[in-house]
Amino acid sequence: MSDPRLASLTAAVPGLHLKTAPDDLAFYGRDWTRRWTPAPLAIALPDSVAQVKAVMAWAHANGVAVVPSGGRTGLSGGAVAANGELVLSLERMNKVIEFDRVDRLMTVQAGMALEALHNVAAEHGLIYPVDFAARGSCTIGGNIATNAGGIRVIRYGNTREWIAGLKVVTVSGELLELNRGLVKNSSGYDLRQLMIASEGTLGVIVEATVKLTDPPPPTNVMLLALPSFEVLMEVFAAFRERLQLEAFEFFTDLALKHTTAHGALNPFAEVYPYYVVTEYAAGDEAAEAAAMAAFEHCAGQGWVLDGVISTSVEQAQQIWRLREGITEAVARYTPYKNDVAVRISRMPAFLARCQSLIGGAYPHFEVVWFGHIGDGNLHINVLKPDGLGQDEFVAQCEQVTKLLAQVLAEFDGSISAEHGIGLVKKPYLSSTRSPVEIALMQSVKRALDPQGLLNPGKLFD
């Protein structure tokens, strides 16, 4: 701890756990993008709101930039600390604070993993319905900071819909208690919603009061094989008309190739171009009959070539692994990722434009497509060839992202559906937000963080 600032920090925050070992700096200073060399000042791991307040007060007084850190599973460079920032990891603040059965609210510390919250809610016979593949390592604070969506948005919406209250520490170390779990509250600006999706640039989320709800009825999972991109929305419409959908996810044959190589099981004997995993309410014979009717209708139209319905929890998990295992399966290729969104009704035309654009731009690259097609969210993963340098690979990909951003602007879409803007998508923010909107966001940033100490460089400069 040779830096005198760290001695000052430990004096200002007695008992604060600090990490300064090179391996720790590398581990906590980056997210899944792996595109920036981590170089944080140190890693602070507070165990209480009081310690977070004291750390922020010290950072404010000493002009030290702070990067709030959750599970660092993001894909936009939002949790990167590459310029001597202090990483403020909330991982030790991972406990349940309160459960209220009447209000169906649970207050948790921001460092709690999403899967842990799921488990605690289940102990009370309820669910927190936001869910995605990184549930075991992502944290509630990080989910809120990016307004994470995941695989069940089609039924439950994004994180934003499930946050009843927040505690947030400001850049100067003050504590804000926002909304306090109220159902109705029209007393001025809702700063809670302002903090959601702010990527740690406006305050440090330390506690969240989340809404819980009843578990869904029994469900089944179906894996469908499709002949083309063009029929995706036809299949979606047919299933949505007949069933109560919990999820509707698609992926390509290349995605399947990588997940099966990574240990997932393919129930089909043949390889098809496109696949859908859909989960639907199946509590009675009528629901099962409706599912079969949807399948038979799509098969009769030539939209579906084959299908498998889960007959056990284990088989349902195996089917889901084909979709949820994609990100982990392609991680070794350090993929360049685009995470985009358009209105569901415009998805067919947008998919056609994207397919032409991406296919023409990357004729020699493997491109893995998957996404939450039922809510208009598409993930595009370009895999780096082994013989190509990282800098050249990123440079080629960014040229296409510029074109993709232009297409998104035409379709009134978003360059970031659920992973935030961070460093990766900052150059393309103007494709999603107007100059007036960006200027207003910058004004909000200056008002709440005039020195620019909170997660600097993210979203915009």
Automatic annotation (TrEMBL):
Source domain of life: Bacteria
UniProt key word Magnesium: no
Recorded GO MF terms: FAD binding; oxidoreductase activity
Pfam families, per the entry: FAD-oxidase_C, FAD_binding_4
Domain FAD-binding PCMH-type per the UniProt entry, residue ranges: 36-215
Family: Belongs to the FAD-binding oxidoreductase/transferase type 4 family.
The protein, known as: FAD-linked oxidase
Organism for this UniProt entry: Stenotrophomonas koreensis
Phylogenetic lineage: Bacteria, Pseudomonadati, Pseudomonadota, Gammaproteobacteria, Lysobacterales
